[in-house]
Amino acid sequence: MIRKIVEIDQEKCNGCGICVPACAEGAIRIENGKAVLAADNLCDGLGACLGECPLDAIRIIERDADEFDEAAVEAHLGQTSRESHHAAHQPAPVHGGCPGSRAMVLDRPATESVRDVPRQESRLRQWPVQLHLVPTSAPYFRNADLLIAADCVPFAYADFHREFLDGRAVVVGCPKLDDNRFYTEKLTELIRVNDLKSITVVRMEVPCCGGIVMAARQALAASSKDIPLREVTVGISGELKGA
Fold first, then answer.
1. 121 Cβ contact list (under 8 Å, min separation 6)
2. CA separation for the pair 99, 4 (Å, rounded)
3. Which portions of this protein are annotated as coiled-coil regions (predicted)?
4. How many other C-beta atoms are found inside a 10 Å radius of the C-beta of residue 53?
5. pLDDT digits (tens, 9 = 90+) for 139-153
6. What share of the chain is helix, strand, coil (3-state, %, to 5)?
7. In the predicted model, is pLDDT for residue 222 greater than 50?
8. What is the CATH architecture of 2-101?
9. How many other C-beta atoms can be found within 10 angstroms of the C-beta atom of residue 207?
10. Pick from 39, 82, 145, 208: most CB atoms within 10 A?
């Protein structure tokens, strides 16, 4: 039948995953680093996900597609729920649903004693740190090396203070929970009014975390400044990916 259905532009999509939780029917999933329709009959064609895509990679078209099936949606959501329950005991994510919000238990024994471990001093030299709260003209941004960090990174990467925070001004945020357009605008202004020496973006490996990298790159381009930008990815288990 000819009906309205979601179409995802694979050229525009960067796999950020922001659209996945926006679809109540679970019709969108991340596959091979891109958002795709899990099945035509899971999409109602109403387009609740459209406004969530920061790259405008999603639109509603009319084409020949299987009829929307509420029973199939219910079965699909039930299967996704069972997969999420199973993944809670697995260290690696599985396909389907949003990897950024899938519960899992990391198989890591608790440290019995830290008496022999030297105490580490905080390398934080400013306050606040949340991107929503920092003033773009704060003195700690002047002639600074800027660190843009996804807010899960310091919990996942044990040497965050020593390897990334030391000597840098920092802003943190979560592109999955916040407005990525706001991030882009705020970062554009921050870069524009300060003579930054470098920008380092540290993100988690989950697809939705790509939004913070995208915001940084778009902000740098909008500022018309030539500043070196480095991207680092941290795995859920705490390792540097590609390192």
1. none
2. 28
3. none
4. 21
5. 999 999 999 999 999
6. 30, 20, 50
7. yes
8. 2-Layer Sandwich (3.30)
9. 22
10. 208
Bond from prior residue into 128 cis (ω within 30 degrees of 0): yes
What does the pLDDT read at residue 89? 44
Which amino acid is present at 178? D
Is the domain covering 139-234 a CATH 3.40.50 domain? yes
All CATH 3.40.50 domain ranges of the chain, comma separated, are 139-234
Q: Specify the pLDDT at position 242.
A: 65
Mind listing the pLDDT tens digit for each residue in 11-48?
989 887 778 877 888 899 888 778 899 999 999 998 88
With a cut of 50, say whether residue 86 has pLDDT above it. no
Q: How confident is residue 91, by pLDDT bands cut at 50, 70 and 90? A: very low
Sequence-distant (6+) residues with CB within 8 A of 60 are 4, 5, 6, 7, 45, 47, 50
Q: Where in the chain is the domain with CATH 3.30.70.20?
A: 2-101
Burial classification of residue 235, based on how many CB atoms lie within 10 Å of its CB (0-12 exposed, 13-18 middle, 19 or more buried): middle
Neighbours of 26 (CB within 10 A): 21
Tell me whether strands 198-204 and 229-234 are parallel, antiparallel or unpaired: parallel
Task: Answer positive or negative: Cα dihedral of 187, 189, 190, 196.
Answer: positive
Task: Sort strands 2-8 and 28-31 into parallel, antiparallel or unpaired.
Answer: unpaired
Residue 116: count other Cβ atoms within 10 Å of its Cβ: 5
